[in-house]
Amino acid sequence: MRVEGKLFAWGCAFYFLIAAIYGFWSKDETGIVLLIFTGSLAFLIAFFVLHTSKRVYPRPEDRKDALQDEADIDYGFYSPHSWWPLPVAACAAIVCFGLVFAAWIVVAGAALLMLSLIGFVFEYYRGDHAH
After folding, report:
1. Who's near 72: CB < 8 A, 6+ residues apart?
2. Fewer CB within 10 Å, N side or C side of the chain?
3. What would the pLDDT profile of 47-88 be if each residue is shown by its tens digit?
4. DSSP H stretches of helix in 27-126
5. What is the pLDDT of residue 131?
6. Cβ(42)–Cβ(12) below 8 Å
7. Longest Cα pair distance anywhere in the chain, in angstroms?
């Protein structure tokens, strides 16, 4: 977890540096505040991860003497042939467009999103790949 913590710590330093440079050149308060908030959020994550890494046993990814066989084998199940993420993303985009243009588009997009989510969740309960 130390690598992840250091990554966010470097991100924190980067965002604060960019906020200072941006504030010096542009004199725009909104951009400075947003960059400071981004750096603060990166600091929160870096602090939590680095603090947690001191209290837990080091993972194989954190040790230099670890072997590849020590890593976790099961990372979960990911469907390599599923087409359902495409309609889910399209329907989510329709809902977002509806928030901009009209409320009836949100309702239609939400209905289509529910149907596509049902298809996505229950993909392995029917058809050729049923378990």
Report:
1. none
2. C
3. 999 999 888 887 877 788 888 888 777 777 777 788 999 999
4. 29-55, 85-101, 103-121
5. 67
6. yes
7. 61
Helix (H, G, I), strand (E, B) or coil at 56: coil
Are the C-beta atoms of 1 and 52 separated by less than 8 Å?
yes
Query: CA-to-CA distance for 58 and 55, rounded, in angstroms?
Result: 9
Q: Residues 35, 93: one domain?
A: no
What's at 112, amino acid-wise?
A: L
CA distance 75 to 113: 27
Q: What is the pLDDT of residue 53?
A: 86
101 in the same domain as 47: no
98: containing domain: 85-129
* CA-closest candidate to residue 16, choices 8, 4, 48: 8
**Structure tokens given for 85:** 């993420």
Closest CA to 95 of 85, 86, 83, 107: 107
Give the lowest-confidence range in 2-6, 82-86, 126-130: 126-130
pTM above 0.70, yes or no: no
Residue 106 shares a structural domain with residue 58? no
